[in-house]
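Dock 2-acetamido-2-deoxy-beta-D-glucopyranose; give full complex structure.
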Amino acid sequence: MLPTSSSPTRFMRPRSRGSAHLVIILVLVIYIVYLHTNGSPYDSLSRSQLVPFSRRSTSAANRHVLQSQQMVLTTDKSGWASTHGKAGASIYQRPLTPVPKGDMRIAIASMNTMESTYDHISLSGKFGYATKHNYGIKMDLAVPKGFRAGAVWHKLNMVEYLVRTGDYDWIWWIDYDTVITNTTVKLEDIIAEALHSEKVKSPQDIHMILTADCWPLNAGSMLLRSTPLMLEFLSDVWKCGDTEDDQNRPNEQSCILDVIEAKPFWKSRAMWIPQTKINAFPSEISCFDKHQKGWTPGDFVVHFPGAWAHLQDIKDPYGVLMRKYNEWVEYVHPGSLFFDMGC
Ligand SMILES: *[C@@H]1O[C@H](CO)[C@@H](O)[C@H](O)[C@H]1NC(C)=O
């Protein structure tokens, strides 16, 4: 005997529950379709941005939405805003291309690939300094996809890029964990002073102005001449680091030193200046060159390499040091007594 025929009530109940489910599902489907067709353009844009470009929907509706959000980029300066006739006062309205000083067009290059607690300090200092003196600036915030060498090796790519533009005479590589503590100091003065020091016989041959710390080279701050010869030097450095063994690749700093030390040709094109000129370390990181001098007020820039090793008990040692020394930047305390005294 079939159970369904013995009890009509038990037969009816499941059927009515089934149609109730159907109605709920139908309402939901209609609601979802409604949301889809009535979402704001902004919603659609952010939804589509979650998908990689190559896989984005190219339906007519989507294309239309994206087009309406598109910005038109132009280099035509006539339309640029001016701040009450003082466009120069706003650093955001002009491209950071260098204005030549005598025979020097200078670019600043730096890089960071991870979020830190001191991004604004580092970036605002470098962009502000570049703007103040009309230097170009290149700041990379990621390495190319599939880049196998450690991120520090990307600095060679950046220098190569800047050399190839032909837009610069000198490039200042400066690590990200640095504060420019005296923005009055000009790179062209540091370069000129170095090249015209007594020990230099032919200034035009000098391609690298470097500093040591307690190791013979610190590659965190380097002045590099932007000529085709620099590309040859970079190739030699790449060769030094060229290994299939990603784990045991030397870092770019030891390769730069190795290449200079190995070939008299490169050695004659490099010179060392006192660490405090372009690469002062604070007293907290006492790894100094032969002059045994740390950063003091008035120095150009302070650098915190290996802060993690020197300040092991402190949480976020780089951020702590960056914030501490950023207090010395004149725009932080414009009229403070200290700077009025010109100390
Ligand atoms: C900054 O450097 C300039 C040039 O070397 C120097 O004259 C000036 O005194 C320094 N500024 C401070 C506040 O020490």
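Observed: Residues 94-274 form a domain with the Spore Coat Polysaccharide Biosynthesis Protein SpsA; Chain A fold (CATH 3.90.550.10).
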